[in-house]
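Hey team,

Sharing the GerMN domain-containing protein run so nobody has to redo it. Sequence (358 residues) first:
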Amino acid sequence: MLNRRTYKLAAPVIASMILLSGCGLFGKDQAVKEIDPPQDVSYLKNGESLQQPKEKANGTAKESQATETVKRELYLIDKNGFVVPQTLSLPKTDAVAKQALEYLVQGGPIEDMLPNGFRAVLPADTRVLSVNLQKDGTIVADFSPEFAHYKAEDEKKILQAITWTLTQFDNVKKVKIRINGHDQTVMPVDGTPIQDGVSREDGINIDTSNVVDITNTRPIVVYFVEQQGEQTYYVPVTRRISNEQKDDIAAAVNELIKGPKYGSGLVSDFQPDVQLIDKPVYKDGKVTLNFNDAIYGSNKKHVISEAVLNSLVLSLTEQKGIESVSITVNGKADLVKEDGKALSEPVTRPENVNTGSF
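Structure output:
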């Protein structure tokens, strides 16, 4: 099972941690090296997607060495201004955190890979000077002065994109930022606080509509659907739920049923009369949800839509300890997916989110 942060950097507490001294790929700070790379590896022959020219020898074209790649989640900004994960193939490297940040720079290596309607988040010409993983799980990213050349309205989106991109690695808990070697207590343009570091708990695409007393709430992340032409992808949204709601699982399901904010451009496949018949059951990493018939949402008996299923799985596996989701209707596990396959087993989070196919 792969939870919401799929890949691992070398944990400082284990004996196999590798330190690179001097001016290595991570600069002079503590190095971060991937020790558990994903198994989904492909090879780009002739450097096609990397646009590396063929070498020539004696007037004839010579194939460049195949480049090994891995999947990475990069958080980009879509046409509606949402910060959205997109899974892309990047060249394999030991400097995984530094590379991920470099692929967030406008005009950088990501430009030829951007999905339609998306843009990179970091200002053009920004350089990643170093990345330092500390023992408490805080990662410190040091950027060149060009980092501060962005519009104020993009500040929180930039901070969210950096934070969620870096925290895909399991032992990264929060993010601090430096500019040219100087620690930042606030973001440089609009003053967003970052003194003690930023984590996923600080939210992404924050929606506080209909929240009267934010001090008596806590954050919860749910995934709604966005459609751009023929492209469908899932957008994480942080909602604030009342502290009086004790069950985060039921709260997430109810937020999905409520649907996205009106006018946001996001959509939901949940019917308004969908209800949980029983309290969610959690055991050994698996959540079982028992719905009424409205979860079908179509005239086809026992068929659950892919959008409903994916939104549930993505939203619930954001919560700590949840690894899979099992769905029943009126106590019976006889659902069928849109492709005609029986939904007979618990569903786990996909290795890669928003790849063009779920």
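Residues 210 and 240 are 9 Å apart (CA to CA).

Ping me if you want the raw files.
A.
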